[in-house]
Write a structure and sequence with these properties.
CATH topology of the largest domain: Ribosomal Protein S5, domain 2
Number of strands: 11
CATH class of the largest domain: Alpha Beta
Distance between the termini: 10 Å
Shape: globular
CATH architecture of the largest domain: 2-Layer Sandwich
Length: about 300
């Protein structure tokens, strides 16, 4: 049997649209073993609306890798433990893709490197901001060129906690992307470029006081505010309550705050209360940054 653990991820971190991401200590697990008949068993905190047939994204990702390396698709049983909230901006699709690819690669003898797996993952997902940290761990910067993805780990284990406030509703990535404009002003481009650079500097040198400014954004968060009631207020409440920085997690609706451990409880309660004032219930996850990424266990 092959068993792979895959972390949740938070993309963008504010200004780093489609290029920055962070692996978090909340995990899905993929188990695969030979079987007389194809079967998928679902377990964990989230199983509703996840297919248990050949349309399952984990299985499709496995088949993509096997076909790419010329490995005959085997008859197997899959045990999928899903603890990453789906369609909430925490990288559930990337966890499925990366989990499937890493498990399939291990099952076939480990013929591909992580860099080669990343290229396949990016082709399936369409952007690397979640698949890179899901595969590599830590906080990652991923750049898409005409022919490949270049990914680097900015910091493997920053010394802060990640507070993920997860509202109780689904928000598809497609819907969240559709509200974004097709073009932006030069001023907004410069604004995000400078904040992204500042954010990377803050992470590399562990100067977390810079995160408040370094996680500011003009490209997507305000545009998505209509999809997440109370988003702007909750981001500000997090800062006012002591968070280093705050951002919409990926395409939302989850809201991310980076905090010191001693401020986590007060920031969490303030953010949950802020969303409640806008009619939303939310679950708070206090997580660390996962330094491993997808791991065979």
């Amino acid at each position: 049997m092959v068993c792979v653990r895959i972390p949740a991820t938070s993309a963008n971190l504010g200004p780093g649209f489609d290029c920055l991401g962070m692996a978090l200590s909340l995990y899905n697990v993929v188990r695969i073993e030979p079987s007389d008949a194809f079967q998928i068993t679902l377990k964990g905190d989230y199983t509703a609306d996840i297919p248990a047939d050949e349309t399952n994204l984990v299985w499709q990702s496995m088949c993509t890798l096997w076909e790419a390396i010329g490995f005959e698709i085997p008859t197997v049983s899959l045990d999928l433990e899903n603890n990453v909230p789906p369609t909430r901006g925490m990288g559930s699709s990337s966890a499925a893709i990366v989990g499937g690819l890493v498990a399939a690669n291990e099952y076939a003898g480990g013929v591909l490197s992580k860099q080669e797996i990343l290229q396949i993952a990016n082709r399936i997902e369409g952007h690397p901001d979640n698949v890179a940290p899901a595969l590599l761990g830590g906080v990652t910067l991923a750049v898409t060129t005409e022919t490949s993805v270049i990914a680097r780990i900015v910091h493997s284990q920053p010394q802060f906690m990640a507070l993920a406030i997860v509202p109780d509703f689904y928000l598809s990535t497609e819907k969240s992307r559709n509200v974004l404009p097709v073009s932006i002003s030069r001023a907004d481009a410069v604004y995000n470029l400078s904040r992204t650079a500042l954010l990377v500097e803050a992470l590399i040198h562990e100067n977390y006081e810079l995160l408040k400014e370094g996680m500011q954004d003009r490209l997507h968060q305000n545009q998505r505010a209509s999809l997440v009631p109370g988003l702007g207020e909750t981001l500000q409440v997090a800062l006012d309550s002591g968070a280093y920085g705050s951002a919409l997690s990926g395409s939302g609706p989850t809201i991310l705050a980076l905090v010191s451990s001693d401020k986590a409880e007060q920031v969490s309660q303030a953010m949950v209360d802020s969303l409640a004032a806008h009619g939303l219930t939310a679950k708070a996850y206090l997580l660390s940054v996962d330094s491993e990424g997808a791991a065979v266990i």
